[in-house]
Amino acid sequence: MTRRSLDRILQSQGFGTRSFCRQLIRQGEISIDGVVVDDERAEFETDGLSFSLFDETWVYREHVYIALNKPSGIECSRRPSHHPSVMTLLPDEFREREVQAIGRLDHDTTGLLLLTDDGAFNHRMSSPKHHVPKRYLATTAEPVSASLIDALRTGVQLHDEPEPLFAIECVQVSEHQLEIVLAQGKYHQVKRMLAAAGNHCAALQRISIGQLTLASLALAEGEWCYLEQSQLSLLQ
Ligand code: URA
User: Which residue minimizes the CA distance to atom 3 of ligand 1?
Assistant: First the structure.
């Protein structure tokens, strides 16, 4: 149970600097339980708090955990070099809260991307020790062959890796598509593994992380949603 003043609450939710949040409060922009609160020092219990601002209802969240169906042509970095940042697809409040992607997808990879402002959670999920399996749907330039599947399952040697990397699971979906599940998240790993096995990745989509599937979230490309505790537990 935590009680905080309204100006600090708004600031923690990404609505701007403390002085800007105070201004919003003094202007009567915030209401709680249908009553305008114009005292910036009024204190509220944050657990379960909801308030209205800018004609929207907001629920207090200590941290945000977000799933995005990433489109192609978007970089995961907050400071992108060649394409728009993933942050352009999210509300400004998330940028203020310093939300960051958990791991990266290439600019041309689509599908399930997680983001959070919980640094400890991000660190845990990104740690090589964590080994959350990630499932990808890869479209290949050349037809998928039994020897390709076999090579990906038994392991392919990438030039800068000390040991061969292998897929935990690899199944053919159609003549030019396969699903591949990886335990690690090395740089361009799927594309490099396909190239090392003699094919070429023409398109790549991440379709699940742990037991959390993109299909279960029903997000169109570019759409995002909050993840609740039951969904976060699917990532363990
Ligand atoms: N493997 C890749 O090659 N690219 C990605 O974006 C993710 C995994």
Answer: 188
Angle between helices 189-196 and 146-154 (to 10 degrees): 120
How far is the CA of 112 from the CAs of 73, 103, 120, 158, 180, in angstroms? 15, 11, 20, 25, 15
Range of the domain at 158: 134-209
pLDDT tens digits, 1-43: 789 999 999 999 999 999 999 999 999 999 999 999 999 999 9
CB atoms within 10 A of CB 180: 23
Pair (204, 217) in one structural domain = no
Name all residues whose Cβ lies below 6 A of ligand 1.
105-106, 109, 188-191, 204
- Atom index in ligand 1 nearest the CA of residue 134 equals 8
Compute, in angstroms, the gap from residue 98 CA to the centroid of ligand 1.
24
Q: Structural domain tally of the chain?
A: 3
53 with 69, same domain: the answer is no
- Ligand 1 atom with least separation from CA of 193: 3
Q: What is the CATH number of the domain that holds 37?
A: 3.10.290.10
Does the pTM surpass 0.70? The reply is yes
Statement to judge: residues 124 and 218 lie in one domain: yes
> Distance, CA 120 to ligand 1 centroid (Å)?
24
